[in-house]
Amino acid sequence: MARSCFQLGEQLKQTPDACPICSGRRSRPLGEKAGHEVFDCRDCGVVFTPAGAIGAEIIDLYTRYYERATFDTEHHVARSLEKLVQSSERFRKTGRLLDVGYGEGALLGIAERRGWICGGTEVSPQALDYGRSRGWTVTKDPANDPRFREGAFDVVTMIELLEHLPEPIRFIEDGARLLRRGGLLYLTTPNAGSLNLRILGLRWSVVSPPEHLILWTVYALRQILNAAGFRVLRIRAEGFNPAEILASMRWSTSRRLSVDRVKSARALSEALSRGPVRRGAKVMVNSALSSLQIGDTLKVWAVRVG
After folding, report:
1. Terminal alpha carbon distance of the chain
2. How far is the C-alpha of 130 from the C-alpha of 150, rounded, in Å?
3. What is the spatial distance between Cα 84 and Cα 111, in angstroms, rounded to a whole number?
4. Rounded CA separation 190/298 (Å)
5. Cβ distance 257 to 251 under 8 Å?
6. Residue 97 and residue 111 in contact, taking contact as beta carbons nearer than 8 Å
7. Which of 20, 43, 98, 280 has most Cβ atoms within 10 angstroms of its Cβ?
8. 176-220, pLDDT tens digit by residue?
9. In whole angstroms, what is the distance from residue 21 CA to residue 9 CA?
10. 293 exposed, middle or buried (CB, 10 Å; 0-12, 13-18, 19+)?
11. Which of 82-96, 154-168, 222-236, 257-271 has the lowest mean pLDDT?
12. CA-to-CA distance for 203 and 108, rounded, in angstroms?
C-alpha cells in the first residue's frame, strides 16, 4: 500500500466503511456486534466500527466512564507502571509528563512520587475533578488551554486510549505538538493481529463497539507515527489471555461467552508474577508472542523527531 494513503488529518470521504486510519476503501464486513457493523481494512489491517454510525453513544460513554471509579490502583498494575516511569527517566529534561486519557490517574500518581510535574487530559468530569484535587494540571481540551504549550513535555503517554477514539490520528498529532523534540511517546492499544482475534473473531470481548472503535496493527501504527513526525523505537505485541478461547472450546458456539476478561487477565497476571520461574516463563511467552506479533496488546515506544 502506498505511504501517501497515510496523510494526517485526511477526512473520510462519502463511504461510511472507509478505513478511519488509511482512508482505504477495500474494507470488508466481518459482521455485526452489539448492533454495530464491524469491518477490517485490507490495506492497513485495522478492525473498526465506523464512528459515524455511533453518534451520541460515544460522548455518553466517555462522560460516564468513571462514575463508579474508586481511583485505586491494583498491585500488579502499579508494578507495571512503576517500570514504565522508571524507564522514562532518560528522557527527563523539563521534568514534565503528560498522560492523555489518564482515567483514574494511576500513572500520574506514580510519576508524581518520582518527582515528575504531571499533566493529564480527560473528558470525564469525575476524572477531571480527581486530577484537580491531586494538584495535577488537567484539562478537557489541551488544544485551547494555554497551560499546555507546544513542546512542553518530555514524555507523553496514551495507555489503552486509541481504540476508544473516533479520531485517533488527531490525538497522535496533538501528542506530537505537546512533546518536545527528542521526547518519548509511549502508547498501548489492543492488537488486531492478536491470536485471540484470529481464533475467536467477533466473539473476542475486546471487539466491543461502541466502546472500542478501532483495533490497530503494527503496520498501521508505524505508518501513522512516522507521518506524525515520530521515529518508532520499538513495538511489542505482548500478553495473551486464553480464558475466552478455552471457554469457547467447552461451550457450544451458539452460547454467549460469559468470561470476565478483565478479572481473568488479572488473575493470570498475578499467577505468573509469583516467583522467578513463573516470571521467567512470562518473559519467554511474551517474547514469542511479540516476535510473531500475535499478543493481545501492542506497546509502542517512539521519539519525536519532526
Report:
1. 23
2. 25
3. 9
4. 6
5. yes
6. yes
7. 98
8. 999 999 999 999 999 999 999 999 999 999 999 999 999 999 999
9. 10
10. middle
11. 257-271
12. 34
Candidates 215, 161, 174; CA nearest to 193 is: 215
Tell me the pLDDT tens digit for each residue of 165-179.
Answer: 988 999 999 999 999
Q: How far apart are CA 170 and CA 9, in angstroms?
A: 7
Peptide bond into 168 cis (omega under 30): no
For cell 467447552, name the residue.
250
For 22, the grid coordinates are 488509511
| Residue 305 burial (CB count, 10 A) | 11
**Alpha carbon 304 to chain centroid distance?**
18
Count of alpha carbons within 13 Å of 12, Cβ hemisphere only? 16
Sort strands 117-121 and 179-190 into parallel, antiparallel or unpaired: unpaired
What gap in Å lies between CA 103 and CA 162, rounded to an integer?
Answer: 13
163 burial level (CB within 10 Å; 0-12, 13-18, 19+): buried
136's grid cell: 495535577
Task: Look up the pTM and report it.
Answer: 0.87
Is the peptide bond prior to 210 cis by the omega test (within 30 degrees of 0)? yes
The Cα-based distances of 64 to 69, 87, 103, 168 in angstroms read: 10, 33, 12, 20
